[in-house]
Design brief:
By secondary structure, this protein is α/β, with parallel strands linked by helices. The chain contains eight helices and twelve strands. The longest helix has 13 residues. 44% of the residues are buried.
Length: 247
């Protein structure tokens, strides 16, 4: 081990955990090396893996996810910008400037849209209790429903903004969850990729539409059934949130 700008550098994760008592690990290695790095961290006692790399092999993501469960740990990502509690901590690659302390939670499948939406929320006085990037790869260690379960009973959270995108059925499943659990906190949604052509991948590995599966229309219709307003643009989100909080 050595130091860089007075920050200690350890030879192994086990040495780092034993020396610092750390429970969170941000994994930044290239995708082909993610499995080994994440497993070493979990084996060393880490309880939260924040998986930054994109295009992690699906089988590797599944194996790390299962191993994390065995260890009583959680994985966020892969392909996540990270997690931030404004003015307290962040693990990831997001800039701190768009985020301000408050009581709104932002869950996002897109990194840059999470920053943009949080900036608009902050501009209108809606600070954030938590910003969490779900991740854009097909496998998510912590999905939208898992994320809602984390905050549903917290008194310091008064509203949730969900930034979704085309592809997969995460938003459809979330809509069913909101209905079945009678989720009481106000929720505002946004879907990126409304004009994307079908059966063409748009950026993220999980952002692909086949027929009506994963389409913006499908997600908007399901949100409507759950009485969740869907913003037409990120700029509209704080306006819809303001209306919801008045009710």
């Amino acid at each position: 081990g050595s130091k860089f700008d007075d920050v200690p550098i350890y030879n192994t994760m086990q040495e780092a955990v034993q020396s610092t008592g750390s429970l969170i690990s941000g994994v930044f290695v290239p995708a082909p090396f993610f499995y080994g790095a994440a497993k070493e961290a979990l084996y060393s006692g880490i309880k939260l893996i924040v998986a930054i790399p994109e295009h992690v092999p699906v089988l590797d993501s599944i194996k790390v996810f299962e191993y994390a469960k065995e260890q009583g740990a959680r994985m966020i990502g892969p392909n996540t910008p990270g997690v931030i509690v404004p003015e307290v901590m962040k693990v990831g690659i997001m800039p701190a400037q768009p985020f301000t302390k408050g009581n709104t939670v932002v869950f996002s499948r897109s990194g840059t849209l999470m920053y943009e939406v949080s900036s608009y929320l902050s501009e209108y006085g809606f600070g954030q209790r938590l910003g969490l990037g779900i991740g854009g790869d097909p496998i998510n260690g912590t999905n939208l429903i898992d994320s809602f379960e984390l905050i549903r009973d917290r008194d310091d959270v008064d509203s949730i903004v969900v930034v979704g995108e085309i592809g997969g059925d995460a938003e459809e499943q979330l809509s069913d969850y909101i209905i079945k659990t009678n989720f009481s906190k106000p929720v505002i949604a946004y879907i990126a990729g409304r004009s994307a052509p079908k059966e063409k991948r748009m950026g993220h590995a999980g952002a692909i539409v086949y027929g009506n599966y994963g389409s913006a229309e499908s997600k908007i219709n399901n949100y409507s059934k759950a009485n969740v307003p869907v913003a037409k643009s990120p700029r509209e989100i704080p306006l819809l949130l303001k209306e919801q909080l008045k009710k």
